[in-house]
Design brief:
- The protein is 52% helix and 26% strand.
- With 109 residues, it is of the alpha+beta class.
- It is rod-shaped.
- The longest helix has 49 residues, at 3-51.
- Strands 4-3-2-1-5 form a 5-stranded antiparallel beta sheet.
- The chain is built from 2 helices and 5 strands; from the N terminus they run αβββββα.
- The chain has helices spanning 3-51, 101-108, and strands at 58-61, 66-72, 76-81, 86-91, 95-99.
- It has 2 domains: 1-52; 54-100, Roll (SH3 type barrels), CATH 2.30.30.
- A hairpin with a 3-residue loop joins β2 (66-72) and β3 (76-81).
Length: 109
Amino acid sequence: MSAEYFLALQSSGGSMGWLGFAPLIFIFAIFYFLLIMPQQRRQKKWQQMLSELKTGDKVVTSGGLRGTIISLKDDYLQLRVPPDNLRLEVSRASIVSVGTGEETASKSG
């Protein structure tokens, strides 16, 4: 076995090394486009929804409470919850969906 034979093995092995990483790069790209990117979009949309909250909006919390916002603070808000018009203070981050009073009235009517 000559030195040229070993050089030929080393040079072909180097290109095979890059081809070995190609499936890993492909798998990472698939994970990024199918899992990471949609999650980032959802997070950005949720943050925008929280920043646009205003008094009078009807909201649903992560615990399933439905109520109308009666006051907003920095990290929390106060809800009026039917049927007894209870005033509850909940974390702003616990809000999962928002609808204005007009939207919910048109859906039920």
